[in-house]
Amino acid sequence: MRRSKQLALIPAAATLKPTPAAKRMMAEQLYVRGRHFIAAAILLHQHDGDENVVVHLLCQGLELLLKGLLLARNFDKYQPRLKGQYGHRLTRLVCDTLAEFKSFATSAYGGVTKSRGVVCDEHLSLRLDAAFFG
User: Fold this and answer.
1) Does the pLDDT value for residue 74 go beyond 60?
2) For 109-131, b where at least 16 C-beta lie within 10 A, e where not — what string?
3) Cα-Cα-Cα-Cα dihedral of 97, 104, 33, 37, to 10°?
4) Contact at 8 Å (CB) between 49 and 1?
5) 107: pLDDT strictly greater than 70
6) What pLDDT, on a 0 to 100 scale, did the predictor assign at position 104?
7) Mean pLDDT in residue range 17-35
8) What separation in angstroms does the CA of 15 have from each of 11, 19, 25, 63?
9) Are the CB atoms for 59 and 40 separated by under 8 Å?
10) Across residues 26-31, what is the average pLDDT?
11) Residue 8: CA atoms inside 13 Å, Cβ hemisphere, count?
């Protein structure tokens, strides 16, 4: 007789939640990966690499680094927002990171203002656009 394999299925209502240590590790991995992308961009730039690739690596690195910082600060609050609300929106990530780390943002950038529900330096979007496209 043949025995059929039975799979233990997890009920649809069950969800697996990471431990605090796992949350820290996930946040740190994103942050470190972001730093590696930025390091690769710097190396490529120093060796006269294609500027489009350099900018892509910088943006990718910044995105991962900021997401790692937000997850490290409050994993449960920011993890659900990573794909939908943030996606690849660097300006929103920068603004929310500055808002989350308010004491640093205030001392490093002068004043911060509240605009459309996001606390952000009033000229940040223009500076980011100029840095990447100008």
Assistant:
1) yes
2) eeebeeeeeebbbeebbeebeee
3) 90
4) no
5) no
6) 58
7) 93
8) 9, 13, 19, 27
9) no
10) 94
11) 0
From CA 57, how far away is CA 54, in angstroms rounded?
Answer: 5
* Amino acid (1-letter code) at residue 37: F
Question: Cα-flanking dihedrals φ and ψ of residue 43, to 5°?
Answer: -60, -45
Strand, coil or helix: what is 113?
strand
State the Cα–Cα distance between residues 130 and 128, nearest whole angstrom: 5
What's the average model confidence in pLDDT over 9-36? 85
Which residues have a Cβ under 8 Å from the Cβ of 22 and sit 6 or more positions away? none
Distance CA 113, CA 119 (A): 6
Burial class (CB in 10 A: 0-12, 13-18, 19+), 7: exposed
* 3-class SS of residue 115: strand
